Amino acid sequence: MDTEASATVDPAALAPVRSAGPRALRGLVRYFLKLGSWGFGGPIALCGYMRRDLVEQRGWYREEEYQQGLAIAQTMPGPLAAQLAMWLGFLERGALGALAVTIPFVVPPFLIVTAVAVVYARYQGSRKSAMFSSASARW
User: Fold this and answer.
1) Is 11 exposed, middle or buried (0-12, 13-18, 19+ CB in 10 A)?
2) Contact yes or no for 84/70 (Cβ under 8 A)
3) Do 28 and 61 form a contact (C-beta atoms < 8 A)?
């Protein structure tokens, strides 16, 4: 068996998968709405999802663009994942792109946390609330 030939790797096999078509603002808004609504795990995990989904799987951004955005996001005050999302939107369409991806990324978790806070404030001190708090503390 020829070991030299079997040890070579086809560079095309390592290229990102472009399954979602070319990058467009509409696709980015949809992606960030989904990530903002269902993403779980905190800012580090969300940034990892962005890299996996937008760089590796869809190929919408180059690794260098992502790394530059991550570095900038880490130097800025505020939430890391939202800053990175703004950068990626900015690369697509400037300030409009940054705003267009930030709103669907930030609003869903804001609404979820607000709804939980309203429910908690409404039922604070009730027997059911105490049972829920006790059960979630053990979980």
Assistant:
1) exposed
2) yes
3) no
Compute the distance between CA of residue 84 and CA of residue 67 in angstroms, rounded to an integer. 10
**Percent of the chain predicted with pLDDT > 90:** 67
For 15, other C-beta atoms within 10 Å of its C-beta total: 9
- Distance CA(80)–CA(47), nearest Å, equals 8
User: What is the Cα–Cα distance from 52 to 103, expressed in whole angstroms?
Assistant: 22
Contacts of 15 (CB under 8 A, 6+ apart): 59
Q: What number is the average pLDDT over the span 51-75? A: 97
83-92's contacts with Cβ under 8 Å and 24+ in sequence apart are 84/47, 84/50, 85/32, 85/50, 88/28, 88/50, 88/54, 88/61, 89/25, 89/28, 89/32, 91/61, 91/65, 92/23, 92/24, 92/25, 92/28
Q: Is the separation of the CB atoms in 82 and 106 below 8 Å? A: yes
Query: According to the model, what pLDDT value does residue 124 have?
Result: 83
User: Which residue did the predictor score with more confidence, 84 or 128?
Assistant: 84
**Is residue 5 over pLDDT 60?**
no
